[in-house]
Amino acid sequence: MKGQPDFLQNLRREMGDGRQWLDRVVVLGYAVLAGLAVVLFTLLADKAVELHQRMAGAVWWSPLIWTPALTALVVWSLRRWAPGAAGSGVPQVLTALDTGTPLAARSRFVSLRLSVAKILGVSGGLLAGLSIGRQGPSVQVAAGVMLHARRWLSPASGISDRELLVAGGAAGIAAAFNTPLGGIVFAIEELSRRITERSSGLMLAAIVIAGLVAVSAFGNLSYFGRIRADDVSWWALLLPGALVAVACGLLGGLMARLLLASFTGLPDRFCAYRRKRPVVFAALCGFGVAVIALIAGGDTVGVGHEHTRMLLDGSAMDTTEREPFVFTGLKFVASWLSAWSGVPGGIFGPSLSLGASVGADVAWLLESPHGAALIALGMCGFLAAVTQTPITAMIIVMEMTDGHSMVLSLMACALVASLVSRMISKPLYSSMSALMMRSLRDPVAPVPDGSTAGQRPA
After folding, report:
1. Domain range list for the chain
2. Contacts of residue 12, Cβ cutoff 8 Å, sequence gap at least 6
């Protein structure tokens, strides 16, 4: 039949093009390095949280000094040597992917140097005891590693910078959450609205390899553990699930709006002081986070995955000991102050922890026997509300859940929470990326880290 591919001819062409195979080896090798970078990032971040907890356990008041001092040091160091490492990491990759970003300017947002600075900055923030995550920053870290592969690719490889960035960002999410499918969906839903056939193959290869590296290091388990939700009929979850979705949409939308308002540099007294004295402002934010951590018994430090695991195990759901809504409020404020301080850190992990707490609060309020299911819905809903990427949120939480009995419930919760959030706030990541793009065109325009593109980092 005319028009059909010739197998033997294509096979000879593939086997005879040695340079093409070398380019593929380079890309796959860098995918391994991207996975290793995220693994190293995870180990360093976990060790930083562990060290902070040891120090706080030895001298209970030490975070009141240690947290603001180290927060200020991280902000000062990054503003001086690596201002592009500030923020969550996802907006930087989106900006580098934007077709309006000049090739020479991409290194301001994504590079191997910024990946190293990001790892050190986030680890420093976790050592300080801030309420930040490493999952979002893993996107920028892995993208920076993958982008470095272009130095070794031949001009005829046909592999563009954009494809390397998408592959690296998706691999970062896959390795950070141990959820390969979540990485694929995140790449399509957030990083790139249009995936070509060629780039999809590259992206899948990078995700699989980075995921295998993460699985070989940590096992085939989610960072938050497995969610064991029993089969629950849809009508049993209808009322409590709706409350969880709306509550997560409201709180997640409020979080996104607060973050955007904080980073755009509104003409208020606090933002003016942040622009004038960013290091001192960071120390004040760190002190506030330290006070909150002392009130919460240290549960607000880092992502909060230990508290989430306790909720899922049921050990923190005892109604005789649980103080509902307290952790949710404390974690919310601590996460906002941590981001506002200027220390690099992600909102993915804290959003999952906050969502789990919202689900547990609703379960306590309604005395529902389906606590694990509502916690899973809360994790999905809050992440969908903050990021406004409902499909990604649903897939990430679904891959944490045993079985697929909650797929429809998770999907409905993510969609409702995202719709409610859109009534309150603009999309977080794309709005921050738009600010970065504006800073490229206008050197004195404010950028999301609170500085200006035309100023010398202080």
Report:
1. 13-218, 234-434
2. none
CB distance 329 to 247 below 8 Å = no
Q: For 450, which DSSP code?
A: S
For the CA atoms of 289, 387, 137, 78, the dihedral, rounded to the nearest 10 degrees, stands at -60
- Helices within 82-160 (DSSP H only): 90-97, 112-128, 135-147
Cα angle for residues 277, 283, 284 (degrees, 5° grid): 90
Cβ 211 vs Cβ 219: under 8 Å: no
Task: Supply the DSSP symbol for 229.
Answer: P
Beta bridge mates, 346: 133
Length of the chain (residues): 458
How many other β-carbons are positioned within 10 Å of the β-carbon of residue 4?
6
> CA-to-CA distance for 140 and 84, rounded, in angstroms?
10
Kindly give the confidence (pLDDT) of every residue in the chain, 458 residues in length, as a single tens digit, with 9 standing for 90 and above.
Answer: 556 766 666 656 656 656 777 888 898 999 999 999 999 999 999 999 999 999 998 999 999 999 999 999 999 999 999 988 888 899 999 999 887 888 878 889 999 999 999 999 999 999 999 999 999 999 999 999 999 998 988 887 778 888 899 889 988 988 888 777 788 788 777 776 555 555 567 668 877 888 888 878 877 666 666 777 666 767 778 899 999 999 999 999 999 999 998 877 666 788 788 888 999 999 999 999 999 999 999 999 998 888 888 887 765 555 434 577 899 999 999 999 999 999 999 999 999 999 999 999 999 999 888 888 999 999 999 999 999 999 999 998 888 776 577 888 999 999 999 999 999 999 999 999 988 888 777 665 556 654 434 444 33
Is 1.10.3080.10 the CATH classification of the domain at 13-218?
Answer: yes
Nearest-10 crossing angle of helices 278-295, 326-340: 160
Residue 401 pairs in a beta bridge with 227
| CA-based nearest residue to 375, from 157, 162, 229 | 229
d(CA 231, CA 370): 10
Q: What are phi and psi of 401, to 5 degrees?
A: -95, 135
- Tell the residue number behind the tokens 């001009």, with chain if given: 155
Distance in Å from the first CA to the final CA of the chain: 68
**Inter-residue contact 170 to 191 (CB < 8 Å):** yes
Evaluate whether 122 touches 40 at the Cβ level (below 8 Å).
no
CATH superfamily for 234-434 is: Clc chloride channel (1.10.3080.10)
For 93, counting Cβ atoms within 10 Å of its Cβ (0-12 exposed, 13-18 middle, 19+ buried), the class is: buried
pTM of whole model > 0.85? yes
Q: Return d(Cα 86, Cα 89) in angstroms, integer.
A: 8
Does the fold of domain 234-434 match that of domain 13-218? Answer: yes
